[in-house]
Amino acid sequence: MFAAVVGGATAGWAAPFFTHPVLRFFGKYSYGIYVFHWPLMRVMGPAYAVTASIPLVFGSVLLQQLALLLIAGAMAVAVAMLSWHLYEKRWLALKRFFPSPRAG
């Protein structure tokens, strides 16, 4: 099944899904989001105070957790974008000096 999905990702039935701009955006910045999400959560103490002021809905903290997720997610994406444009892009540009061997 995985091979069918990967094969269909570039040309085939799954191509419209895998080439969607939202998926391409998160694919581009996903490593930075992965790397920076935990350090950001460690320094987000003040955000907990902001989300704690959101009232409980039917006794549930779900709305508070959703707000925290949106704040933390937006921060992780912003830091990942900065990292990609200020750091990673320059390293990726060096790939032209290291040609990959052709499969044959």
Topology:
Blueprint: H1 2-10, H2 15-18, H3 21-42, H4 45-52, H5 62-93
H-E order: HHHHH
Shape: flat
Count of the separate structural domains: 1
Structural class, by secondary structure, is mainly alpha
Q: Look at the structure and give the mean pLDDT.
A: 81
Strand content: under 5%
Helix share bin: over 70%
Short descriptors:
mainly alpha, flat, single chain, about 100 residues
3D structure, described in words:
The protein is mainly α and 104 residues long. The chain has one domain. Helix content is 72%, strand content 0%. It is built from 5 helices and no strands. It has helices spanning 2-10, 15-18, 21-42, 45-52, 62-93. Helix 3 packs across helix 5 and helix 4 packs antiparallel against helix 5. The protein is flat, with a radius of gyration of 19 Å. The two termini are 26 Å apart. 4% of the residues are buried. The mean pLDDT is 81.
Summarize the model shown:
The protein is an all-alpha fold. The chain contains five helices and no strands.
